[in-house]
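so the lab meeting is tmrw and i was supposed to have these ready like two days ago... anyway. pasting both below. for each one the top line is the aa sequence and the line under it is the structure tokens. i havent really looked at them closely yet so no promises
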Amino acid sequence: MRVLLISNPNSTSQNSALFREVLPVIRDVEGLQLLARFTHYPGHAQDMVRGMTREDFDVILVFGGDGTVNEVVNGLLGPADSANRPSPQEIPVLAVIPTGSANVFVRALGFPNTPVEAAHVLARMLERNTRRTVSLGVWNDRWFAVNAGFGLDADVLARVDRAREMGFSATPLRYLAVAFQAYQRARIRPPRISVRARSSAGETFAADDVPVMFTSNTNPWTFLGPLPVVTNPRNSFDQGLGLFGVSDLGGIDGLVGVLHLFGVDHRHWLNKVTDARTLHFEDAVAVDLVCPKPHRFQADGESEGTFTEVHLESEADALEVFAPVDPAPPMHRNIRRILRDLVRIN
């Protein structure tokens, strides 16, 4: 088995000590040949794997976060609107060892969030050749694996990125603080998003002047530290896209609806409040989002610029990944690990 490992050497979450712990775990897989390459600029991972087939490598192993996963997916599959898009069996299988800040994709697949633990799980998957096929999202002609959003969530991510560039860490509390600030600005000048969607069963959804509309390809859509944030409980890598929106940002109901998007109401105690303001649609295969003025758009946690119109689709069985066959987490929880992760929230 020929494996190409791709890593960003400038990532603050990676260091030589971590490599010394992780790489031997993967190299010990019988019959595995490992080659490591490092990225040197944004988009390099996409350029690196563009046009690769299984004749080049059997596996592309991403040692990074959701942004690097997004680059590799787009490099392997090419433009989503291409008539010559490769089948999942023609391109290398994707594997991930998480080192990002959220790691939504790999955690939703059922892997641990820590690199060493995830490496041990992945090694067993490689030995047993345990893989599955997942659906992916498409926005315009590009792919996304986790989520995409117009407006508020894109503004939050852009501002968190600016904070990180200034040397601040992207902690869950920082996300919540930035989300509240973005909410206050959006209340004054809310986006006016028109939404049109169609499900695989032919059902339709339409809404106008929506200030917040979010699209996810996974369940959960993100994590608040160790806690999953769920907007569309029925969503999965085996279905279409899940839509979650807030119809009105005014009053306490609007605030609670926005905070629900960012995981504050993890136990759903405020369902009666949020149900009055939130919009849900499941298993969407086509979605059109239109704004009268340009607004930020994000995909897989990366800002993609400003747009007035975005078309999204769900592509079933788009990519093969190494992952547990049953990604459902065990019923019991590791209390020590949760407490350890909670201490890291500062």
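ok protien two:
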Amino acid sequence: MKKVFYLNTCDTCRKILAQFDLTDWELREIKKEPVTKEELAAMHKKTKSYEALFSKKSTQIKLRGLDVKSLGEKDFKELLLDHYTFLKRPVFLTDNEIFVGNDKKNVEALQEFFGVNE
């Protein structure tokens, strides 16, 4: 399994995806085709945390009046399944590894995984 979960309207996602040869990867635009319970479970199995998959920059947090500090793992799971913007992106998922988000450390790990040097 090799899947990338991303948002097409996100410039950062597009910039990151453009760096790699994703020919044999399944590309999933999460707004059109949201993450399933099974896919979220596969991500959780690798991260051991729903919070690690949760985007604390989601505009839905303010719109819903959420206090992120008071949320537990069950809350994060429910929110991730409820709305696509709660997923930290992009997410590169393989049988053995997961890369979550767009922070510098994660992008560097992805570049190493793909054997790409910027």
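from a quick look at the 2nd one: The helical segments are 11-18, 37-47, 59-64, 73-82, 104-114. The beta strands are 2-6, 26-29, 91-94, 98-100. will dig more after coffe
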